[in-house]
Write a structure and sequence with these properties.
This protein is mainly alpha-helical. The protein has helices at residues 25-34, 51-59, 65-80, 85-95, 99-113, 118-123, 131-143, 146-203, 209-244, 246-256, 262-283, 288-298, 302-316, 321-328, 333-345, 348-405; strands at residues 3-9, 15-21, 38-44.
């Protein structure tokens, strides 16, 4: 998504500069307004590049979930102990072990010294703090519940880390096996089969069909391996470039939800994230329209984001939340039922928290089932490849042995 640099005015008229991800300048302005800022100037972001900055960016550590969890927990503890915000951020900037986060927090303290609020200061670093994170901090400042907000953020980020870890662990084994198979097939095709091919051709015997097919594939790979490598690199780069576009990312995010075996896990994890985030936002006093906006952006899925943002139009026309959710077509009956009951009873956040807990358990079960389902599939694939290789290499050896004996 394109990045824009902006100049805006805060609630007290103070000047604020920063960057924001948005599809168009109009969308960037709308997001700034939703965040309580008044846009003054919005321009496409142009990064100033130098050799020193390139080396710094290359070797600069990223701010991960562990760093944000620790930061949120420490902010909660220090604010609960009565430490002022400026002193809390300053202390964490000097003690955090992540160099990137330390530099960010030092810049945040500079912004706080100039009179900006904590949410505005964090908003200048969208690469570290998400839109949802900043929005909840702003709500905490408005409602006077900033200490509780940091506690909730720590809990949510810890759950997010656990869910991601389970999904990654389920996919790590098949990814490693498939990569090993690809390397093994390449080595066999380029070095092993040509050696057998020279041996078979020296006898002049007629070769079986599996052997001829393997030899044709091997000859093609040996003769064209530089071109094949270039095509593979071009395919990977083109795919990455396409996914980085707005339309490509939308189609890829939609396709991920429909992948066999993995798609259902991603879908359930997305529903759990939506339920947790929406419950947190509404329970913290975030207005419904703003809650939908920040939750949609926090899902990291442009397809789901578009569908959730589309719900705002129906709500603006007076339709019920449960009805707009039904029309979006992305929620299963359990979420829709809980939304309808929550609207009638006024307990949407409580019910969605229960839904989120349910889906987290489903994700746990699905990841375990995913591992057990992938292993036999990989076993069959590996067995089939070994059978093809064995037939292609050993059948002609048996034929050659019979020719020599006779």
């Amino acid at each position: 998504m394109p990045l824009f640099s902006y100049k805006a005015r805060g609630a007290h008229g103070d000047a604020i500069e920063g960057t924001i991800d948005a599809g168009t300048p109009d969308l960037a302005a709308a997001r700034l307004i939703e965040g309580g800022l008044i846009p003054v100037d919005i321009q496409p972001f142009v990064e100033k590049i130098s050799l020193g900055s390139n080396l710094e960016i290359l070797f600069r550590p990223k701010v991960g979930l562990n760093d944000l969890i620790q930061f949120s927990r420490q902010m909660h503890s220090m604010l609960r102990a009565g430490v002022p915000i400026f002193r809390a951020v300053t202390g964490l900037a000097t003690t955090t072990g992540n160099r990137t986060l330390a530099q960010t927090l030092h810049q945040v303290t500079t912004s706080l010294e100039s009179g900006r609020t904590l949410s505005d200061a964090l908003g200048q670093h969208p690469g570290v703090f998400s839109v949802f994170y900043i929005s909840l901090v702003r709500v905490g400042e408005t409602t006077g519940k900033l200490t509780e907000i940091f506690r909730q953020l720590a809990i949510y980020l810890d759950r997010e880390k656990t869910t991601r870890g389970k999904i990654n662990s389920a996919l790590r084994y098949p990814t490693f096996v498939i990569s090993a198979i690809a390397v093994a097939l390449s080595v066999i095709s380029i070095w092993v089969i040509p050696a057998f091919s020279n041996l078979f051709s020296s006898f002049g015997a007629e070769l079986p069909l599996p052997t001829r097919i393997l030899m044709m594939i091997s000859e093609f790979m040996v003769a064209n391996w530089p071109v094949l490598l270039l095509l593979l690199a071009a395919l990977l780069y083109g795919t990455r470039l396409y996914v980085s576009t707005e339309g490509g990312r939308y189609r890829w995010d939609k396709f991920k939800l429909r992948l066999p075996l993995v798609g259902s896990v991603i879908y359930q994890a997305s529903l759990a994230r939506f339920s947790h985030l929406f419950a947190m936002a509404t329970n913290s006093g975030v207005p419904l329209m703003t809650a939908l906006t920040v939750v949609a952006q926090a899902l990291n899925n442009s397809y789901l984001e578009e569908r959730i943002l589309g719900m705002r139009g129906g709500i603006e026309h007076g339709k019920a939340l449960s009805l707009t959710a039904t029309n979006s077509g992305i929620f299963d009956p359990l979420v829709l039922q809980m939304l309808a009951v929550g609207e009638e009873s006024g307990t949407i956040s409580e019910l969605l928290t229960e839904v989120a807990d349910y889906y987290e358990r489903e994700v746990d079960y699905a990841t375990d089932r995913l591992s057990s389902a992938i292993e036999p599939i990989l076993t069959v694939v590996i067995g089939g490849l070994v059978l093809v290789m064995a037939m292609g290499i050993f059948l002609p050896m048996w034929n050659l042995a019979s020719v020599v004996l006779h």
